[in-house]
Description:
Layout: E1 4-8, E2 12-17, E3 24-28, H1 39-45, E4 50-54, H2 71-84, E5 91-95, H3 97-109, E6 115-119, H4 128-144, H5 146-157, H6 160-165, H7 167-178, H8 182-193, E7 209-214, H9 222-230, E8 235-240, H10 247-250, H11 252-265
The protein binds D-malate.
Amino acid sequence: MCKKMNTINNNFRIFQTGLENKQSIIFIHGFPFDHRMWDRQMDYFGRDYHCICYDIRGLGQSPSDEGQMTIESFVDDLFDLIEKLNLIHPVLCGLSMGGYISLRAIERDEDKFCGLILCDTKAEADNNEGKLNRAKGIKEINLNGVENFAGNFVLKCFSDNFIKYHRNDYEEVLNRAKSSDPTGVKACLLAMAARTDTTDYLPKIKIPVLLLCGELDRLTPPDIMMTMGDKINNSTFVLIPEAGHVSSVENPKHFNYEIERFLKEI
Ligand code: MLT
């Protein structure tokens, strides 16, 4: 399905499929990827819903704001998008870093949304070890460029079988990540290191929540997401078989099936 592309607020790139009078779903991608992570969802759900995805500033086609971004500014971008497109109670779906942005958006203004889908993500902020790893990543990019960093990071995101049996798909994602803007990647690392912890808000969430996690996710393993689900009243946790951290790409059929089931119930 052909995506409609437009630009709002200083080259913030957004993409849409489906009809604007339908229930809207906003998809927020993970790091260091871009909106194309959602191709299979934009195509599939564009048949019955109004789908919106975008490139987080600093990644894909959205230039970094001089490297000065925070999860707060990412949420500001999301709220601007909702206002500019006149979206009424969209469903929010975020994967990993997209999940950090989604959780903070819900904490800031839950009434804007009618449902939340959290994929391969967590509510906890980085601990000291996590922050030091971000710093190491920034140093590595400064020394060796973004290619090396992206190569190592993306390798950890996908399951071994996906890399082995879907080599072309894997290499496409990998090459896109390797060609990211170094300043944007470093700014995202800093933004993630500086994010707040949204755990305290989990029991306060009122809207329905679906939690999806690749059964082979090494970065946010299923037990982390299951524990998060236990803290949210109106929530369902589902494992995505044969998928690692990027479950929307690794097993789109099962991923879409679970989302469709959730959307019909809200
Ligand atoms: C992501 O996929 O967005 C990243 O793994 C998030 C992170 O590094 O914390």
